[in-house]
Write a structure and sequence with these properties.
This protein is of the alpha/beta class. It has 2 domains: 202 residues, Rossmann fold, CATH 3.40.50.1010; 70 residues, DNA polymerase, domain 1 (Orthogonal Bundle), CATH 1.10.150.20. Helix content is 38%, strand content 9%. Strands 3-2-1-4-5-6 form a 6-stranded mixed β-sheet, sandwiched between helices. Helix 2 crosses helix 4 and helix 2 crosses helix 11. It is globular. The termini are far apart.
């Protein structure tokens, strides 16, 4: 009997995040037999993805999501500092050279992938999570990424899979976020707007760290409610009050969109084929 859609876990993979990790974090460089080509990006991508799937209790439906070429335009319009600091030199963007082969590899092994030109992977993944919540609320959803922005999506059925962490500690769930950071996933964007996120060029309020943010947001408050709640006291409180306009803007930048129109066929509810070993994928692509 075929499995019901809600019985098949969904694994949404942050494609660029995984590719960068494969290129810069793989333990050894992988080269073609004649040493002329660096294959670390494509080899590491499939090796790490294969290992991640082993951590799940059942074979999932896998969807790999990539950033679009013009993905940052909307948030850059809100704040030109958004990701503006990121290096664009040859070495910094070296992993992108492997992207064509990664996509060819995904096609070769029949793994679904999506890239919307004007959307970041965060927004596509968030929209897929929202679609699952509406259509198959009992379905287990995993997001494979090191990016903490995804913490805002965590709930009882949606968790983060971060395989950089040691075995046994790779799952980020609601309880961990609440214990470690003192906020709920629903408050993650409020926290990020106060504390800042250097990776995205979000400055945050000077002097506000994890403990202060948790204190300010205690009880489920959002940043819009802080002034009326009489919590903005002392020097740090004054800084927050003076920065509320910026904080509101940063929160909009961190918040993932959940309303993107996604391809109708994107989520099938059917488990994806097992991923071959990385050497075999490289062989299939005739890259050795």
């Amino acid at each position: 009997m075929a499995a019901h859609m809600s019985d098949v876990p969904l694994l949404l993979v942050d494609g660029h995040n995984l590719l960068w990790r494969a290129w810069f974090g793989f333990p050894a460089r992988i080269r073609s037999r004649d040493k002329s080509r660096d294959l670390t990006g494509v080899f590491g991508f499939f090796a790490l993805l294969r290992v991640a799937i082993r951590d799940l209790s059942a074979l999932p439906e896998v969807v790999v999501v990539f950033d679009g070429e013009n993905a940052w335009a909307d948030r850059s319009a809100i704040d030109p500092a958004y990701k503006a600091h990121r290096a664009t030199g040859v070495e910094a963007i070296a992993p992108i050279r492997a992207l064509v082969d990664v996509v060819r590899g995904l096609d070769a092994i029949d793994l679904r992938h999506v890239c919307i030109d004007t959307a970041e992977a965060d927004d596509v993944i968030a929209s897929a999570v929202e679609r699952c919540r509406r259509r198959t609320p009992r379905r287990e959803v995993w997001i494979m990424s090191m990016d903490r922005d995804f913490y805002q999506l965590v709930d009882e059925r949606t968790r983060i899979l971060n395989t950089v962490r040691r075995p046994g500690r790779r799952v980020v769930d609601r309880k961990e976020i609440e214990v470690r950071f003192g906020v709920t996933p629903a408050q993650w964007c409020d926290r990020a707007s106060l504390v800042g996120d250097p990776a995205d060029g979000i400055r945050g309020v000077r002097g506000v760290g994890t403990v202060t943010a948790a204190r300010l947001l205690a009880g489920g408050l959002g940043v819009e409610q802080l002034e009326a709640a009489d919590r903005l006291v002392g020097r740090v409180g004054s800084r927050v009050r003076e920065s509320l306009e910026d904080v509101a803007r940063w929160k909009r930048m961190v918040r993932s969109r959940t309303d993107l129109p996604l391809p109708a066929h994107l989520l099938s509810g059917v488990a994806s084929p097992e991923i071959p070993s990385a050497p075999l994928v490289v062989e299939m692509l005739d890259l050795w």
